[in-house]
Amino acid sequence: MKALGYFAVVTGKGNTNDTIQQIRDYEEAFFKSSKLFKTMASSAVTTKNLSFAVSECFWKMVRETVEQQADTFKATRFNLETEWKNNFPRLRELDRDELFEKARGEILDEVINLSQVGAKEWESSLNEKLWENMKSHVFENIFLPAAMSGSSSIFNTAVDIRLKQWAEDQLPAKSVQVGWEVLKDKFEGFLAKAKASKNHDSIFDHFKENVVEEAVRRHQWEAPEVLRVIQLNTLEDRNVHDKYQWDAAVKFLEECVKERLRVTETLLRDLIGPGAYERWAHWTYAAADQSIKSKIKTEYGDIFFRTTALPYRSRSKLL
């Protein structure tokens, strides 16, 4: 490093009890009476002049650094403005607050679109989502255990008991969760539709995605208690309002049972492998574990045929 200058200073008289002012007065008196330092410029002696020189040097470096940073910021701003004009030619230059307000307005517009969704569409989406999330529980924990009784009266009693227990414990919270999922899917659908439009600009996409994720994380829907009362009252109501409602319920249950049967047959086919005709006609063979599972199925079939009223066992108990 190259020295910027040399200074002569006196740091004290050797007495630790001297004050700063005493040391300063002694230093000035020393340089006034010193024959050796009279040849030096007065600005190159005393601690005071040294501190002034260091301060001036420091602020000179700060000014140079600030000017350099200002030039860098100007170049960065020019690059960003040029990038904006090339990438977003249909939008004027907006500051941070204006961009936020514009994105906020677009999100609120999509929220308004939710109110335009018809009641039938909401009902259809909720029914589909509810059944998709609850059909396994309905079949495995309510319908099949009650159907193993072999008596219609016992079946009705078992279904009523299990439905009531389910409505008191799990159904309200599950219904709220499903409702929130449907609402979220609808809102994301509107955002995706807007994104696919011809005049869409992708500048706000990341911001909107973060807003939706944060809303999902913070949202709380305190409705299980109200739903619990409504659902329990609905279960107590055994009146069928018209024939159409009864036929629709029967058709829905029939279709669900057939679908469940198809799924079960497909799963069973994967577990036990191809049957005798399929092995002979298509030259396919069952794996070793499939052969073992096929024999287990045959044994269980014999037990079911020999037993008139076999208690229902869940999948976990059977395994």
Could you characterize the architecture of this molecule?
The protein is an all-alpha fold. It has helices at 20-33, 47-87, 96-114, 119-147, 152-169, 171-195, 205-218, 224-236, 243-272, 276-282, 288-306, 315-318. It starts with 19 loop residues before the first helix and ends with a helix.
- Give the strand tally: 0
Largest sheet: none
Mean pLDDT: 80
Order of helices and strands: HHHHHHHHHHHH
Q: By helix and strand content, what is the structural category? A: mainly alpha
Number of helices, counting only DSSP H or I runs of 4 residues or more: 12
List low-pLDDT spans: none
- What's the shape? elongated
Helix content: over 70%
Gyration radius from CA atoms, angstroms: 42 Å
- Our measurement of the CA-to-CA distance between the termini, rounded to an integer number of angstroms, reads 82 Å
**Hey, roughly how much beta strand do the residues contain?**
under 5%
Blueprint of the fold:
Elements: H1 20-33, H2 47-87, H3 96-114, H4 119-147, H5 152-169, H6 171-195, H7 205-218, H8 224-236, H9 243-272, H10 276-282, H11 288-306, H12 315-318
Helix pairs in contact: 3-6, 4-5, 4-6, 5-8, 6-7, 6-8
